Amino acid sequence: MSDNRELKTRIIIAIILLVISAGLMTAGVMRGEVFAVFTKAVHICLECIGLG
Amino acid sequence: MKISQDIRRRIIQIAAFGFSNSYIGNIPGGRLYKGSWKNFCNPGINCYSCPAARLSCPIGAMQAVGGSAKFSVSFYVLGFVLALGVVFGRAVCGFVCPFGLIQELLHKIPSPKKRIYKPLTYIKYVVLAVFVILMPALVTDKFGLGAPAFCEYICPAGTLEGGIPLMLTHPELRAQLGALFSLKAAILAVTIIGCILCCRFFCKVMCPLGAIYGLLNKVSLYRVHVDRKVCVSCSKCRDICPMDIDPVAKPDSAECIRCGRCTAACPVKAITVGFKGKEKGPSEI
Ligand code: SF4
Ligand code: SF4
Ligand code: SF4
Prior knowledge:
The complex is a heterodimer of chains A (52) and B (285). By secondary structure, chain A is mainly alpha-helical. Chain A has helices at residues 3-30, 33-41, 46-49. Chain B has helices at 5-20, 58-66, 75-88, 91-95, 98-106, 123-138, 149-153, 156-169, 171-174, 179-197, 201-205, 208-216, 236-240, 261-265, and strands at 223-226, 271-274. Bound molecules: iron/sulfur cluster (3 copies). One iron/sulfur cluster binds next to helix 14 of chain B.
């Protein structure tokens, strides 16, 4: 494939994947995942520090 | 004054490390930062149980959501990592991951230097599938909660950045030390020795986040481009590559962290790293 065609294909795939990622993030935010992330991150995680 | 690609990358790495770990004042008291930045994930590996950490660790967050009673997979974190990976690929590893910088500094310790045994690089995909995705979602207790298996049994970043500072400042945590901590301390020791001998040993062998970004190297907009008509097959790029790959043979290798060292080493400027097919080489930056 020529360089230009390869670049074009990459851009098209990237746009599709970026739309999917925006959809995933929106869905995650709407169903309340951010709260789950925040809650985990502000307390000492016993698994992380090796006390599990 | 021209700044070399390597120095420019190091400045970005240090800035990203500083931004990710700006609450160093929390270390002596062993307290975690609890502000709103923790709603967001770090692009790289940086333990959220480190008192200095500003952001959430994406791999920890992926497991926390996947292991919760309500959800079995985290759309929020997957979407975030996918977006970054599609645009930058493993350049995230090369430029902004705090644990990547720690490993590169460890590699500066004088010692014999080794290349990685290629089959070991596939371990990280198993780690991603088994410890980050499957175990938190499927191995659950009676309340439907799954443990973050990668954090619990493997992650040396958690032991180094969270475990050690918190153990030093919390006697009540020290009193609970047991077999699990010994296992994680042993993995940390292997990682440190591995990184001294082999550049970014953890990135190459174990990191599940690097596995995701690496797969996205195949499609990422930020990429390595090799002009094969110009290349004189001198192998200088392969010899200098810290990730032990040959960019001419595999410019989209899942191991490439887009560090740009090969561009600087190429005597005929056949390699470029950037967003476009033909970007500026290091001599033109
Ligand atoms: S233990 Fe490792 S994977 Fe888990 S949150 Fe900490 S740094 Fe992230
Ligand atoms: S492979 Fe993992 S630890 Fe290494 S730089 Fe990438 S995200 Fe960070
Ligand atoms: S191929 Fe080039 S850009 Fe990629 S890791 Fe090796 S030296 Fe760095």
